[in-house]
Amino acid sequence: MSNSNLFLKSGFIRAPLQNGVGRFVPQLQRIVLKFCKSNGSSRGLRDFIEQDLVDFAKQNPSVVVYLKPRRHRGPVIVAEYLNGDRVWMGMHNKTHSEITKWIEVLRTQQGDIASLRLRKYQYTDYPSVQGPWTPFTFKDPELNTAKLPDPKYGANNRLPMTATEKLRLMFEKQKLNDVNTAE
């Protein structure tokens, strides 16, 4: 174990509150936007507040949004999650679009996993030197550039006809019948 792990709390990654089993519970509980009204480095955060904050609050009714103006301080976003984690992000000289993307990242994650020493339920004295197995471990690399569906890779050539194709054929038959009856 490295020395950096001695000062981190340890835990398991799990879906909090069995999230997604019965219904989805957004994990972001509170977001605090700290900014200066006159400092130039807060311009992007002030633009976000003026243009997108109301829409963000309407789209995320479970998130409490606090605005905290501070004099002569850099812009900061603090996100608090249901599991008690707090994520602090400095937004010094960030643009409006960058701040929008970072707030979306904070909204969709479940807390600060980077500050957690991950534990596993399994343990072995002889870990694999080959690395973890993934579903793509033994796949042919040609699949990365292949245009699918391809019969070479087991694609079915006789795909069922789509509803649009059926309607198009029915329309063409009806058109031919109308032309034949008019003659």
From TrEMBL:
An example molecular function term from Gene Ontology annotations: structural constituent of ribosome
GO CC annotation: mitochondrial large ribosomal subunit
Keyword presence, Ribonucleoprotein: yes
Residue ranges constituting the Ribosomal protein/NADH dehydrogenase domain according to the UniProt record: 37-110
Protein's GO biological process: mitochondrial translation
Residue ranges the record marks as coiled coil: none
Alphabetical keyword list: Mitochondrion, Ribonucleoprotein, Ribosomal protein
Organism superkingdom: Eukaryota
One Pfam family cited in the UniProt record for this chain: L51_S25_CI-B8
Compartments, as annotated in UniProt: Mitochondrion
Main location: mitochondrion
Family under the similarity heading: Belongs to the mitochondrion-specific ribosomal protein mL43 family.
The protein, known as: Large ribosomal subunit protein mL43
